[in-house]
Structures are given as C-alpha cells and as structure tokens.
Amino acid sequence: MPFDSAVAAERMLENAWTQAGPAALIDHIVQRFHDVHRAQFPKAIALARRVEAVHQDHPRCPRGLADHLAVMADHLISHQAREEAVLFPLMLAGGHPIIGHPISRMEAEHRDVDEQLLRLAMLTTDCTPPTDACGSWRLLYRACQEITGDLREHMRLENNILFPMFLDGS
C-alpha cells in the first residue's frame, strides 16, 4: 500500500504543476534547483579536495571525486545557462515550432547526468563513508547525496512535466 500512496502523491504533485502552468514550474526549477546547484557544487568540490588531500593514503579515499564534481558542475552551469537563455524564454513565450530541438538536447544532457551520477555513486560507494571517516568526509558524502537527489528530482520535473507541456500534440 505505501507504494500506491507514493505513486498517487506523485501523480497529484505532477497534476498540480501541470495545472500551475509552465511559468510557475520554470520559476520553481530556477529557484529550487538552478540556484541551489550553483551553491552546492563549489562546497562539495572544496570538501572533496580536502578529503582527497588529507586521506590520500586511505584505501577508500574517493580519488578523483573533486575533479568529477568539477566536471559535473561545469556541464551543469552550461546546461542551466542554455535553459535560462534559450529554452525557458521560448517556453514562457508560449512555445515555438523549433522547441523540440532544444528540448531534445536537454534530454540528451540529462542522460549524460545520469551517467555522471553513476560515476559519482561508484566513487563514493553509494555515498557510504567508511566507518572511520572523519566529519568532513561524512559531510562530503551527505553533500553528494543531496546533489544526487536534487539532480534526479530536477530532471524528473523537466523530463516528465515541463517538457511534455510543449511536446504533446506538436
């Protein structure tokens, strides 16, 4: 039964966003996700650099995590900038015959993010720190968990709710 309740709650939320319309959803995405991602990544990268430097001899040291987070951040900043400069204005103007092209590009980039998140999970053993991990290491993995959850929800809102508003029937 809990699964049915969760599915029903998710459908109700999706219906609420659909009813609210694209402007409200775009505003939510920018404030709740774009702005938050811009703050999350620099903190996580700094923590990762510190953990990698201090614990470089530890067998479970997440070697390469800071660089991976930096690549993710660079791609995400570019992706969000294109959404905010091109895609979202097209949507706020009511759509455009070419809108399918930038949406397809964003969906492809979302698939790339899925791959990046798999690598993140591998580097952090699913965000599970070793039992002897220090506070910074634990904080880093909590930050990685938050980034993962936020990115997945961000992409779900766009792929499942926002984009279909402009592709259905076109």
Short description:
This protein is an all-alpha fold and 170 residues long. It has helices spanning 2-20, 22-54, 65-92, 100-123, 135-167. The longest helix has 33 residues, at 22-54.
What does this structure look like?
It is a single chain. The chain has 170 residues and is an all-alpha fold. It has one domain (22-167). 81% of the residues lie in helices and 0% in strands. The chain is built from five helices and no strands. The chain has helices at 2-20, 22-54, 65-92, 100-123, 135-167. Helix 3 (65-92) runs antiparallel to helix 4 (100-123). The model has no long low-confidence stretch (mean pLDDT 93).
Question: What topology does this entry show?
Answer:
Layout: H1 2-20, H2 22-54, H3 65-92, H4 100-123, H5 135-167
Helix pairs in contact: 2-3, 2-5, 3-4, 4-5
Share of residues in helices: over 70%
The geometry reads as elongated
Count up the helices.
Answer: 5
Portion in strands: under 5%
Low-confidence stretches: none
Q: How many domains comprise the coordinates? A: 1
Radius of gyration: 18 Å
Largest β sheet strand count, sense and barrel closure: none
Our measurement of the CA-to-CA distance between the termini, rounded to an integer number of angstroms, reads: 37 Å
Order of helices and strands: HHHHH
Mean pLDDT: 93
The chain-level structural class is mainly alpha
Report the strand count.
0
